[in-house]
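Troubleshooting log. The previous structure file for this entry was overwritten by mistake, so regenerating from the original sequence record. Sequence copied from the archived sheet and checked twice against the printout by T.R.
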Amino acid sequence: MPRLLQMSVPNPVRFRYRTLTPDPCPPGPSPMSISERKKEIRRRRKRREKLTHLKKKLPKATKSEQVEIARKVRDMTPGAEVVIANWGLEAVDR
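Regenerated output below.
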């Protein structure tokens, strides 16, 4: 029976326990190690905390402080232009 199953599948997939569910851990290197994933999650959380802190300062900020906040956001995150547009800083900045 398993032999027929393998012959009928064009690309043989590793099955476990002779069921039709694919193995959750295919052979070969994983795209990212667990420690790298944890580092990435920590960076994202820290970036979100910093953005929240800067957003709280924004309503009372003067024009020069708003320019400084926009600069910090631009240095901090790759999607800075979207954040700056959402916060209404594009008129102040540049």
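The mean pLDDT is 79. Archived copy saved in two places this time.
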